[in-house]
Amino acid sequence: MTKPQVLPEPFRIKMVEPLALPSRDTRETALRASHYNMFQLKSRDVYLDLLTDSGTGAMSKAQWAALMNGDESYAGADSFYTLKKTLQELLGFDHFLPMHQGRAAEHVVFSSLAREGDLIPMNMPFDTTRAHIFQARAQPLSCVVEEAYQPEVDAPFKGNVDLSKLEAALAQHPHSRRIPLVMVTVTNNSGGGQPVSLENLRACARLTRARGIPLFLDAARMAENAYFIQQREASCRNLTCAQILRRMMDCADAITVSCKKDPLVNIGGLVAMRTEALYYQLAPRTILHEGYLSYGGLAGRDLEALARGLREMVDEEYLAHRVSQVRYLGDLLTEAGVPILRPVGGHAVFIDAGAFLPHIPQRCYPADVLSVELYREGAIRGVGLGALAFEDTDPVTGRKKLPRLELFRLAIPRRAYTNHHMAYVAKCVAAVHQRRASIRHGLKLVQDSPVPGLSHFVARPEPTPL
Question: Is 347 a catalytic site residue?
């Protein structure tokens, strides 16, 4: 097999944060204290933290310098207008509402626009997106292409919306009051960080605009999606990532963004929209739950760092390294015989936990068993994205429905770890894979979340013999 290739980091390290590998005894104590839930581990007990790429990246020296320009005025701060100019120039939106993070943007959008019984077609909803839709007493509808459910299939745009599924949903519910919006996540996190093609976005826009239904993008990883389009979509190979990103945004009526991902800040979110009417429809809940319209739960210095991060996220040398580093980890795992979702996504490597631990029934949460075993092996924290995160209840029968994918995610923080760290992760995953047949326990819940869609955040599982 060809040796995995990876680009060198396009930066040099100016500040370091010490890491310490806890002993095996410490790890076992930490597992018991956290009730075998990765979200409840203390960060001091984690060596390499791949739980999420949300807010865990490193800011640049330009972003740290920008903090000093923060205008902390309650209303009309200069920092708001700095960010407004960036969004207009980079993404083409004239109106926006800052939020303290992405799930706040989801809350404002779905609580303002969705009503009981509404249907929200998407490619695939992620955890908090589903939870906010459920809270509005609406239902998400996955309309992703079938390849998304086939981890071994190496298709270029497995995040695409299946247009026939979307057309069927729109035809079945022709009145816009039943479908307040359609949302497409770029890249598609639930399906392995897979991109959506520009051609597919344009087709979705044609379908929704023909029916007067707004098209939203969940654009947390929009720059990575633009990079994949550049690399994989023939008609876009001569465009810059910034040009592709603008074309993606041209398809949307509005976007929600967790700025803790591609925009390279540790806190922040936003909703950007084309029309003043939508702006004022979302403004009241923003004021009630976030803050005034020109700061939305963020300090002025955060707005300045965000404005800079949005411009840095489309730097092509950075994006090439970012995607290369994630792919490098995926290639190392493939070389070791570990079953992963192909192709490797933009922000994470997703292990096919069902294939990794085929002897563990899905109702015993194999993805979360894998998370426990990898922490036990090397103090590495990832997250299970399978039955515990996405188990659903049939609204008619009330029966539990297991998801079609049982994945374990290793999310790579931006500009935070080196390629040597990726090699260590691969070594530890390979060690667990070699002893996988000896893993003779599943997990059972002794405490669950009362809020639908949030089990994996707060649940208390415990080992149970098979």
Answer: no
- Catalytically annotated residue among 47, 126, 295, 318: 126
The active-site residue, picked from 66, 138, 220, 254, is: 220
Nearest to 223 by CA among 205, 239, 246: 246
- In the residue annotation, 400 being an active-site residue is answered as no
292 in active site: no
- In order, the DSSP letters of 265-295 are -SS-EEEEES-HHHHHHHHHHHHHHT--TTT
Exactly one of 62, 65, 74, 85 is catalytic; name it.
Answer: 74
Catalytic position from the list 218, 302, 352, 368: 218
What are the φ and ψ backbone dihedral angles of 274, each rounded to 5 degrees?
A: -85, -35
134 is catalytic: no
DSSP state of 189: T
Amino acid occupying residue 394: D
Which member of 95, 260, 261, 321 is catalytic?
261
Check 350, 456, 457, 459 and give the catalytic one. Answer: 456
CA-based Rg of the chain, rounded to a whole angstrom? 21
pLDDT tens digit at each of 466 positions of the chain: 556 678 889 999 999 999 999 999 999 999 999 999 999 999 999 999 999 999 999 999 999 999 999 999 999 999 999 999 999 999 999 999 999 999 999 999 999 999 999 999 999 999 889 999 999 999 999 999 999 999 999 999 999 999 999 999 998 876 556 999 999 999 999 999 999 999 999 999 999 999 999 999 999 999 999 999 999 999 999 999 999 999 999 999 999 999 999 999 999 999 999 999 999 999 999 999 999 999 999 999 999 999 999 999 999 999 999 999 999 999 999 999 999 999 999 999 999 999 999 999 999 999 999 999 999 999 999 999 999 999 877 766 767 789 999 999 999 999 999 999 999 999 999 999 999 999 999 999 988 777 666 778 888 999 999 9
Is residue 126 part of the annotated active site? The answer reads: yes
261 is annotated as an active-site residue: yes
